[in-house]
Design a protein that fits this description.
It is a single chain. With about 90 residues, the protein is an all-alpha fold. The protein has a domain of about 55 residues. The chain has four helices and no strands.
Amino acid sequence: MTAFTALDRLFDPDRQCFTEDGARILADLRSDEETQARMEELASKSNEGTLNAEEAREYESWVRAGTLISILQAKARLYLKKTAAA
């Protein structure tokens, strides 16, 4: 089992991990301009094959964080959809 699989199970919307306000905040979460610019810079360098070792570690951490945030946002949206239907 990967860490992401475990988190996927942990934040199952049926487990009531979210509040409506918390789910809305999480679903709408976006990075600030500076962070977005850095991620785009690293992504571009990665595509070009020009990342140094430190940048590669930084980029990998952003990719992992982005995956985690995406999973949590999907769970939050599902929670909001279910509560709206109830």
